[in-house]
Fold this protein.
Amino acid sequence: MNLNSIDTLLAEVLAGNKIAVANALNLLENIRPAKTSRIRQLIEQLSRNARPGRHLIGITGPPGVGKSTLISRLANFYRKQGRTVGIISVDPSSCRSGGALLGDRARIIHDPGDSGLFIRSMAAGKHLGGLAWRTRHCLTVFEAAYDIIIIETVGVGQSETEIAQVVDSVVFVVQPGSGDALQFMKAGIMEIPDILVINKADQKKLAAKTKIDLETVAVYSGFDESGWQSEIVMASALEGWGHDQLAQALSDHFSFLENTCLKKKRHLNRVQWILMMFKERFGMFGLETLGGESSVLKQIAGFDLTNPFYCFEKLTHEMWTLAKNV
Amino acid sequence: MNSKVNHPKDRPWLMRTYSGYASAKESNLLYRSNLAKGQTGLSIAFDLPTQTGYDSDHILAKGEVGKLGVPMRTIEDMDTLFNQIPIDKMNTSMTINAPTAWLLSLYLTTAEKQGANIADLRGTTQNDILKEYLSRGTYIFPPRPSMQLTAEIIGFTVNHIPKWNPINICSYHLQESGATPVQELAFTMANAITILDIVKERGEVKKEDFPKVVGRISFFLNAGIRFVEEMCKIRAFTSMWDKICTERYGVKDPKLRRFRYGVQVNSLGLTDCQPENNIARIIYEFLAVVLGKDSRSRSVQLPAWNEALGLPRKWDQQWSLRLQQIMALETDLLEYEDIFEGSHIIEQKEKELAGAAEVELNKIMEMGGVIPALETGYMKRCLVESNAKRLREIESGDKVVVGLNKFTEAEPSLLTQGMEESFLTVDDSIADQQIELLHSFKKKRDQDKVARALEKLHTSVSNSKNIMQASRECALAGVTTGEWSDTLRKIFGEYRAPTGISGISNDRISTEEARKVNEKIRRLNTKLGRNLKILIGKPGLDGHSNGAEQIAVKAKDVGMEVVYEGIRLTPEQIAESALQEGVHVVGLSILSGSHLKLIPEVIHCMQKRGLNNIPLVLGGIIPKSDIAKMNNKIICKVYAPRDYNLNTIMDEIVDMVDKAN
Ligand code: B12
Ligand SMILES: Nc1nc2c(ncn2[C@@H]2O[C@H](COP(=O)(O)OP(=O)(O)OP(=O)(O)O)[C@@H](O)[C@H]2O)c(=O)[nH]1
Ligand SMILES: [Mg+2]
């Protein structure tokens, strides 16, 4: 099997061959200019072949609340239903050395013989916003290879909202007694997630109290602009309960999106991706030349988004033309 | 004043040797020969599969059956182990933790078959789970149910085997994982409090019997090379324990408040280069626990001079035993009352340590005791940090280790010269025999009886009944260690302890050398197109995690992306992680002696996944003579304890990756 051929690589990724998935990810993470053209080809092909029923789930929350343990339970639950699962977990990098400890994997139980579960850890690097710079690139592989895609990021408060622009459903995990998250939500600093999980609810009393506190926030906020009423789920990832309710809530949210705005949401997410690529490359100069962020967003929205690089190039071309004319 | 008047000479401490290997039959012969020579107590080592609740035919048992202790699966094995050894005359110490209830059940069943009355039995089960999560690695279930089991066993023995020591709370292992004296004191006391509180809360014993429970608690300590401080630490243990017993548990009888402890002295500081120097270290460490009468240990085990080379042979153990006998019988030590009584300096140091430990203890109690402090990773992180500091000091030379980082020019050691191996090796073929023995036992037992016993165990544990009754019925019925443990795994689930490496606070490139490696990595990253990513793996049941943890922390410090999943992985899992994570290099750490079985398997599993060009590095206790046997070109380098300069290791790994790409 020659995985150097993009066609073979694609076919194998679609078939869920883990060696191919790993190779595709290695390629998409590669920043050498020599790889650019292959990366473009692959992403375009992958985008055309994304699984129709895929569900992208973002799981975020403060350090140590049990996100990875919960993901392990969820993954097991989906695997039992026969659905395949791809997991990306993002950890922060040290700003001095650039090194990172990718520790989530240790908490996610994986059977090496299971061809329907794939876990990849990524270091955030210098990228702000809770994801890694190449997370969106890599997602295209997962969207083509797996039914359920879960992204874990560390996040509290406003700095990590990027996840909402990448996935279909955002799950925010807290533990009993987490005052911070509550304060952030009350103050409107943090967006209300689609689903809230109080994990470690094996600490029963404190968990019940936290639930009441959170309900006041959720009630106060009411429905979000799309009409979805945020749900609160109690779970203990350690003892192994509550993740099935979480899966149910996720499935409810997904049906809700399918009946309302899934297409639009994914379109917007892709627009954001292209905007981000453009911003990372040309910064304020690029944005201003094209008349500011909202004008750029409008332009992107008008493109055919299947090939994000094509859009990126169109923007770049436009920018240089305008820049020359100034 | 005559310093010796009117005082009878103190009795020597108990001198133990910890042993067990290959099979119940072999170990039985060994014990009988030791007993014939006048040894009075037995100290049983079980192999790692037994300690982690697996039968000898489980995949994780590969390379470990009978290696570091005796395999103990069934009542037949226990009967064999004590063949012609009268259990009612023995004082038996068993190093067993997660499956304590099971091994104790087997022991009691054999005893009763011999006609003993279990109420008369004497002995100790280690039964201390906290240090398994933090250091020793042979845990099975999550902390809460495990601590419940501990409490149930304590309740059972206090009610039925009054002379049994149901638990030996260990700070020994914490020091071997890098703990400072203050951490040892605080963590150990917090552990004791948590356990006693659970026993009390569960009402395992009658209220008026609770002081008896306190009186049955014993400890297992360590003593390092800074022997003055170590002696003060032991005095601090004594005073802190007395205070806790009095104030927290209201124990009036001073006899029940006595701090009873045994010791094995420090091994972490013993070296593989100039190994003869270790004898000096062992003796100085030994001083701390015998010099002062008031803080003298009740039993002592000393490691051997070849500790960092491999398992000790009989002669090596004999040499260590002689060190003790000379101290006890030739010197005048035992003729005196406490020779430090009235020393202000000792007293002050003791207070200092106890004071600092109390602050740390309160911090842990405020977190809700050791269970939350463990689960959040707090305690493990503290240990990894202390160990990192220790290694940094050795690297910089601030901490002198003679023969390792100073006075390294030396005559060749006559103790190892000309010998291929100066330590014990265990034949790998015993595994097959042991598996066969297990299978033939399983064939001849009454399967229905086994099924019923396991069913009962399941119901009784699910309903939080004391574990012992149903476990004893399992022992009689012919249940195996793996079956007993699996039944509990189904109820409690399994646990993976925190690795302690994330969130380490000293996030900085510590030295000039580290900065140089960092620059080199940045250059390499440009060539690779991705950041240098390393997987550090621990295959098999080996719980020695210190090396892997320190390499992981260092690798991050110099700028690598590090995947480390903790201990107890199969070769398939490691290879699979290497694939899924797209790493550039794989490092394996093995100290338990199972490398010849496991490393070729990891390589095979990697090749199956097309990972042929990923360099592999090894570290741990891997004898030179074995490196040739593993002969494989993807193994780039094998590191040993003497390679203390972590920056050099990192630098070499960067070069390997550079070359491979
Ligand atoms: C500390 C220690 C323990 C601690 C472990 C704590 C922990 N969490 O790590 C405790 C007390 C728990 C322990 C328990 C046991 N131990 Co022990 N232990 C040791 C000891 C004294 C030191 C090991 C150590 O941590 N060194 C410090 C670290 C930093 O060094 P290192 O691991 O060698 O790593 C260096 C290099 O090797 C290299 N390296 C290591 N790994 C890697 C990985 C990579 C990728 C790279 C690049 C480099 C690298 O870099 C490091 C830097 O210098 C050794 C003897 C010795 N002095 O070496 C015995 C030793 C390893 N233990 C031994 C035994 C038998 C046991 C027990 C089975 C005893 C028992 N019957 O209960 C138990 C088993 C526990 C288990 N579950 O496996 C034997 C193993 C015998 C064998 N191989 O045949 C030894 C050799 C002692 C002996 N001579 O008998 N032990
Ligand atoms: N008591 C209890 N502990 C839990 C539960 N879920 C996870 N934990 C423990 O909490 C600790 C952290 O769990 P993780 O799953 O690593 O948490 P995380 O949010 O992914 O952590 P980071 O990725 O480091 O931010 C571990 O020790 C888990 O065993 C739970 O439901 N109850
Ligand atoms: Mg996590």
About this structure: The longest helix of chain B spans residues 344-366. The mean pLDDT of chain B is 94. Residues A 67-68, 104, 107, 152 surround magnesium ion (ligand 3) (CB under 6 Å). Chain B has two domains: 14-375, 512-660.
